[in-house]
Design goal:
- The protein is of the alpha/beta class.
- The protein contains nine helices and twelve strands.
- β9 (219-224) and β10 (227-232) form a beta hairpin.
- α5 (154-166) packs parallel to α6 (184-197).
- Bound molecules: adenosine-5'-diphosphate and magnesium ion.
- Adenosine-5'-diphosphate binds at residues 18, 23, 41, 43-49.
């Protein structure tokens, strides 16, 4: 008998209702450890809501969510984080008045369970500084070490947020529109960075731009009106007639040279 490892993330028939409105309408998803999955879908499809359900900000109205085989629906965000899931937000969450280095150190200390204990802080200081330096290099902000988060460029802030998200070494990473508001060239560079820093981890990322995800994702999940209508490799999703009908109908295939499809918002 073989022992297959548990799925990194699994959703079983998840529903979420706000008042009278069904936003998530029976979503199933099974993501294997180390898989990179892009969640795409039109505005208002429920992508951020799904992230909020997975990360514990909201409890599902019904259904079950598992992280590494462990039931997490209904748990608090910090509990789910401790169990190995870390997420970024669509809107940047950084300490504006702290430097790059100190934002990363805070994230690392928090992940170590540091609770305002000065002695514990001192015991960890050396390791924390080393890890913060390593993260700064990974997110290519090592020359910006002492710059306040508020004074970084927008793209640098997004990079710092990725650093904060991966600081605790969580095996499962959720990124909500990490490239939102970036130019094409910034986006291309940023996707490469995400690819590097999430190497070996499980990644679920929300994207608007189909072109962006083709270079990054092993699989694409298409969410339309609260339901996942396709979950497959990028090529198969692109060829899926249901996806074309429901989602890519609003899309133009205008860059055949790159094989990219661009969403028209
Ligand atoms: N806390 C909430 N209360 C009520 N409605 C919400 C809440 N959060 C999201 N919604 C609604 O759920 C729908 C999906 O939103 P969202 O998950 O943000 O979509 P997406 O991220 O795919 O653009 C929208 O119609 C939004 O107005
Ligand atoms: Mg959203």
């Amino acid at each position: 008998m073989t022992n297959t490892p548990p799925l990194a993330l699994e959703l079983r028939n998840v529903h979420k209702r706000f008042g009278q409105t069904d936003i998530i309408r029976g979503t199933d998803l099974a993501i294997a450890p180390g898989e990179r999955v892009a969640l795409i879908g039109p505005n208002g499809a429920g992508k951020s809501t799904l992230f909020n359900l997975i990360s514990g900000r909201f409890a599902p109205s019904s259904g079950q969510i598992f992280l590494n085989g462990q039931r997490i629906d209904g748990k608090q965000p910090f509990e789910i984080n401790r169990l190995g899931l870390s997420r970024s937000f669509q809107i940047t969450h950084l300490f504006a008045g702290l430097s790059v280095f100190d934002n990363l150190r805070c994230a690392i200390l928090w992940s170590l369970g540091y609770r305002y204990s000065f002695l514990r802080f001192l015991a960890h200081l050396h390791d924390v500084n080393a890890r913060a330096r390593q993260l700064m290099a990974q997110i290519r902000l090592d020359t910006r070490r002492n710059v306040l988060a508020a004074n970084l460029t927008y793209a640098e802030q997004r990079a710092l947020e990725i650093g904060v998200t991966i600081a605790g070494n969580a095996p499962v990473i959720l990124l909500d529109e990490p490239t939102a508001g970036m130019s094409r060239s910034e986006t291309t560079r940023f996707i490469q960075l995400i690819k590097e820093v999430t190497e070996g981890r499980t990644l679920l990322t929300v994207e608007h731009d189909m072109g962006v995800v083709f270079g990054l994702a092993d699989k694409i999940a298409v969410l339309v009106y609260g339901q996942i209508i396709a979950f497959d490799t990028p090529d198969k999703v692109r060829a899926n007639s249901r996806v074309q009908e429901a989602y890519l109908g609003s899309v133009v295939a205008d860059a055949p040279a790159e094989g990219y499809l661009h969403v028209r918002n």
